[in-house]
Every structure is written in structure tokens, then in C-alpha cells.
Specification:
Blueprint (H helix, E strand, L loop, with lengths): L18 E2 L9 E6 L3 H12 L4 E4 L11 E4 L2 E4 L5 E2 L7 H10 L5 E3 L3 E7 L2 E6 L2 H11 L4 H24 L7 H11 L8 H6 L5 H7 L15 H10 L4 E4 L4 H12 L4 E4 L3 E7 L2 E7 L4 E9 L3 H8 L2 H6 L2 H5 L7 E10 L2 H4 L5 E5 L4 H10 L8 E4 L1 H4 L3 H4 L3 E10 L17 H21 L7 E7 L1 H8 L13 H4 L13 E3 L9 H16 L4 H8 L17
Parallel strand pairs: 1-11, 2-3, 2-14, 3-11, 8-16, 14-20
Antiparallel strand pairs: 4-5, 6-10, 7-10, 8-9, 12-13, 13-14, 15-18, 15-19, 16-17, 17-18
Helix pairs in contact: 1-9, 1-20, 3-4, 4-5, 4-8
Length: 561
């Protein structure tokens, strides 16, 4: 079967979650307004609803869910970010407890294969298997002489998780105590807590290939070993220690399961509700203005739009300046931009030989070198190509889309390659833009065919997203995927917390704590605690007291349409 490309005029998605905004549908007064319906915004709203609050969530997109939404086209369905989530196999894990809480237990999870991630590091292949012993054996099989280093690394992961508890709690302390808290953290967390990943691992082993394998999931947070904080690496590695899971029914089930909880207290989640400004009166946040000019007021405004959007686009400049944002901005940078391929095929995953395993394809184990070479020369090999098989992971997929399969491919790119089209309209960017997309698409498809040659000639539908797609649908101006970059400098910023210096204004989502669905979701729970204070503690006890541990565990989120 020949490959069929989409027509220029793409039909809209058939998967829409949330209620379309109309000013006459507002039913205030509201206790809080949430800007954005990503998992952080939805979690904040659901937790506040559990505390008896009436919350309004405003989403500018046609569907709710942010990076957790799904879309369908031409008889196929893809997720745009929830490629797999860890720690969902037991009802007693922290992430699972919170998911069950904000969905009233509606969301179900399906396990991936035991070998949930497969790393292609040049000519070397390393399969990561579920379980602590599974991971240990996976690394030992590839590096039989590195047992001591591997054991030291696994022990360090546990130490980092314990340190993360104190780091998380520090986000809820009063801002004036931040300098004191920062000094205290130095004594409470491991020495390696916020050094670069490469620096920490070089202290364990001088085997660069082993370091490349250990850091083979760096695409889960978008920063290679010399750039990333070891804190971020350790959280992701620990999060997937017991394998990967996928929501039954697809990623859109996440928002579908949370919204009824928000509605129990009279709240609502509106789509096509484009917030253009946060209203500030007498130095306080008092509500928002939407694109139709309607002003909606509430005592509290919660932004899930990202730190950069919040302070640079939604707040009046004088309000951002009064809280010292311009100086703080110098210490954080946007995360990487990316390409996404969304592929549809006739035939079931079994017929096509599609696994429940993610593929990570690298030109070599030297990730930082690969990235530098690619950013210097876009024609160089992609430093990472991630291949995912959502129709194989979801046991309900064939009930919705019988006899079909889907594949998603994600790879990093430079925003500058697409910058000259940034002021054009999605779907109408011109022939030069389409030609560039076609070239990049063919390169990524060759990577797919190299690993699964039986798929050549069998693609029925394909669609490619660029950083401009991310900017158009998710409002990240540089097409960034993970919000703020996960560098040591980012994790040293004490002002990245739920409660801002502007009374009545709160932040939530991945910029509060870490990227990933579970990291952003726990950020949403922290926002509720920052608002409710001691009144929220009974909720915290119900969810997170698990043998005395309180710690966020982020997960993979690697694509946006």
C-alpha cells in the first residue's frame, strides 16, 4: 500500500473534551479561575473541588487536557504527550494515589511489555526491563564488567528520591524564608542532588557507553547529560523502575475522568476560552479577561500557562516588574523544541508486528556530542529519535478503531529552522514550509524502517508537527516541549513555587516542580496546598502518606501535535 499524505486542508479532530465557552454559560461566582487545562491545571481544579471550592478552568484549545489530550483524524487516533507513565501498577504508589483521587478511580491502566524501553546506542542495543532487578540485569548484560558501578548508581537513585521530599516541601514554605530554606536543603539532600547528570555519573564510572545507556531516557525531560540536573534524571529513572503503563481508552481519558470531579461543586472546564490578560487591581490578581472582552472575577487566579507565558504575556508589564521577574528570567531558559510524526496503518498491531515497547534511537552513546553536532548542522543525524506504538499499548484501541494501528515518532529540532513562518496560520504556511516538513519526515521514516523494515510501503496516513504546531496549539512561543529547561540553574530558583509574589496569583503545572504528567499533576496538588494551607493537610494525608514518604515522580511526556 502506498503512503498517503494529508491534504492541505486538514479536518478538525473528533476527540473534544470539555464544554465550549460562551459568556452566557458562566455560572459564577467562582472561588478560583484556572488558566489552561493541562494536567497541572486540571489537578489543581479537582483538588480544590475536593476541598469544596467552585473552580472555573479556561482552555484556549478546542479540547481540554493540554499535553494529555488525544486527537483523531482519517480513522486514526494519537496521543500528543502521554506516551507512557510509570508507577501505575500498584494502587499504593504516590502517582497512582493522586490519579485515583482526582478521577474518583475512573482511570484504568494497562502495562507495557516487560522490556518497556529499548535503547539503540549506535550498534549497541540495551533493553530496559521492569523492576529494580530487571534494570540491574539489563545493564549488566550489556556491561558485564560494570557491576559495582551499576549497583552504586541504583543506590544513588534511592538517595535522590529521599532528598526530593525536602525539595518538594520547600516549595510550600513562605517566600521570605527561601534563602534560609536553601541553606537548609544543602544539609538535607545528597551532595549530588543538583549537579549535572554527567558530572555525577563520571564519579561512578569512566565507561562512556555505560553512561550513555544509563542516560538513555534523557528525551523524557529534554536535556542531555551535561546540561541536565541529576535530580531530574534520577526522578525519571526511579519513576520507570517498575515499567511503563498506558491509560486504557487513550490519553484523552485523563481529562474525561477528571472533569466530572471539578463539576461536582458547580465548576466547569471551558474550551475555546482564550485568556488574554490577568486582571490586577491594587497589586492583587482579581480575575481574567478573555478574548471576547468578558471579565471573569475570582479571589484566586491559577496559571497553568507556563511561567514564561504568565509573566511575559498575561500579566501587565508593571505587575511583572514589581515582583522582580525580569531579573529572575535571566536564570531560566525554555526547553527544547521538537518534531512529531503521527502515522496511521491498516492492520492490527499483532498483524504488523508492533510492540508495547518504546524505541530510543541514538547515533552513539555520546548524547551531548550528538546534540551539539545536530544543532551545528541540521543535516547531521538526529541526536535522538523516539518511536512509540500507542495502538499496541491501549487494549481498548481496537474497540474504537478496529483493524488499524498508529505510530508516533518524536525528535528534537531547532526552532530557528521554522522561525520565518511563525506569523503564518496553521495548515496554511506555504509550499516551502511543506517541503521542509516533507524532507524531515522522510529522514525520520528511514529510522523507523531501519528498525521495523516490514512497515515500508504500509503507511496509510502521516502527519507531521513542528515547533510552530506546538506554538499554535499549546501557546509555547518557541515550541518548547517541557516548559523550563531542567538544568541545575532551574532547580536552584526558589521563586518557582505555587504562590507568587502577587497576592491572589498562583502557578501550577510542570514549571512549579518538574515536567511529566505525574510531576505536573503533583505540582497541581501543591498549588491546592498553597491556597488551602492547613485546611488542605487532611487531603494531603489521605493521598500521600505512604510509609512516611512524600515525593513527586515525573514521567515521560514526549510529543505535541
Amino acid at each position: 500500500m502506498s503512503e498517503r499524505r494529508p491534504s492541505r486542508k486538514l479536518s478538525p479532530s473528533t476527540l473534544r473534551v470539555g464544554r465550549r465557552y460562551r459568556a452566557n454559560r458562566l455560572n459564577g461566582p467562582y472561588d478560583a479561575i484556572v488558566i489552561g487545562s493541562g494536567i497541572g491545571g486540571l489537578a489543581s481544579a479537582a483538588c480544590l473541588a475536593k476541598a469544596g471550592k467552585k473552580v472555573l478552568v479556561l482552555e484556549q484549545h478546542y479540547t481540554a487536557g493540554g499535553y494529555t489530550h488525544s486527537y483523531a483524524r482519517n480513522g486514526y487516533e494519537w496521543d500528543v504527550g502521554v506516551h507512557y507513565i510509570g508507577d501505575m501498577g500498584s494502587p499504593n504508589t504516590l502517582g497512582r494515589k493522586l490519579f485515583d483521587y482526582i478521577t474518583d478511580g475512573r482511570l484504568q491502566w494497562a502495562p507495557m511489555d516487560e522490556e518497556y524501553d529499548r535503547l539503540y546506542l549506535g550498534e549497541r542495543v540495551v533493553g530496559l526491563r521492569a523492576g529494580k532487578e530487571g534494570l540491574r540485569q539489563s545493564l549488566l548484560e550489556a556491561f558485564p564488567r560494570e557491576g559495582e558501578a551499576i549497583d552504586e548508581y541504583l543506590a544513588l537513585l534511592s538517595k535522590m528520591a529521599d532528598g526530593m521530599r525536602w525539595y518538594t516541601l520547600s516549595k510550600l514554605m513562605p517566600a521570605p524564608l527561601a534563602p534560609l530554606i536553601g541553606k537548609g536543603l544543602q544539609h538535607l539532600v545528597p551532595d549530588d542532588f543538583n549537579r549535572s547528570t554527567h558530572e555525577v555519573l563520571r564519579g561512578i564510572t569512566d565507561n562512556d557507553a555505560l553512561i550513555g545507556a544509563i542516560t538513555g531516557q534523557w528525551g523524557d525531560y529534554g536535556a542531555p547529560p551535561r546540561q541536565s540536573s541529576f535530580l531530574m534524571h534520577a526522578l525519571v529513572a526511579k519513576h520507570y523502575l517498575y515499567g511503563g503503563y498506558y491509560p486504557v481508552g487513550g490519553a484523552s481519558e485523563i481529562a474525561k475522568s477528571i472533569i466530572p470531579v471539578i463539576q461536582t461543586t458547580g465548576g466547569e472546564v471551558f474550551t475555546y476560552a482564550d485568556v488574554t490578560e490577568i486582571l490586577i487591581e491594587k497589586g492583587k490578581a482579581v480575575g481574567v479577561r478573555v478574548a471576547d472582552g468578558e471579565e471573569i472575577r475570582a479571589r484566586r487566579v491559577i496559571s497553568d500557562a507556563g511561567v514564561l507565558n504568565t509573566f511575559e504575556k498575561l500579566l501587565p508589564q508593571e505587575a511583572a516588574a514589581r515582583c522582580g521577574y525580569p531579573g529572575k528570567r535571566e536564570n531560566v531558559t525554555p526547553s527544547a523544541a521538537h518534531l512529531g510524526l503521527y502515522i496511521g496503518l491498516k492492520g492490527t498491531p499483532e498483524e504488523l508486528g508492533l510492540p508495547k515497547t518504546n524505541f530510543w534511537v541514538y547515533p552513539s552513546p555520546n548524547h551531548d556530542t550528538n546534540v551539539a553536532r545536530f544543532f551545528d548542522d541540521p543535516q547531521a543525524p538526529f541526536p535522538i529519535v523516539y518511536i512509540s506504538f500507542p495502538s499496541a499499548k491501549d487494549p481498548d484501541y481496537q474497540n474504537r478503531w478496529p483493524g488499524t494501528s498508529t505510530i508516533e515518532i518524536v525528535a528534537p529540532t531547532r526552532y530557528e529552522l521554522f522561525e520565518r513562518w511563525q506569523d503564518t496560520t496553521w495548515g496554511k504556511r506555504g509550499e516551502d514550509y511543506e517541503a521542509l516538513k516533507e524532507q524531515l519526515t522522510e529522514r525520520l521514516l528511514e529510522t523507523l524502517y531501519d528498525k521495523l523494515p516490514q512497515l515500508r510501503g504500509k503507511i496509510d496516513y502521516i502527519e507531521t508537527s513542528t515547533p510552530l504546531s506546538t506554538s499554535w496549539f499549546c501557546r509555547y512561543s518557541r515550541g518548547e516541549l517541557y516548559g523550563l529547561d531542567h538544568t541545575p540553574a532551574r532547580f536552584a530558583q526558589t521563586w518557582l513555587r505555587p504562590k507568587t509574589a502577587i497576592p491572589g496569583l498562583y502557578l501550577t503545572g510542570q514549571d512549579v516542580l518538574t515536567c511529566g504528567v505525574v510531576g505536573a499533576m503533583i505540582g497541581g496538588f501543591m498549588t491546592m496546598l498553597a491556597i488551602e494551607g492547613w485546611r488542605g493537610m487532611p487531603l494531603a494525608k489521605r493521598i500521600f502518606v505512604d510509609r512516611g514518604r512524600v515525593a513527586p515522580q515525573p514521567d515521560h511526556l514526549a510529543g505535541a501535535a
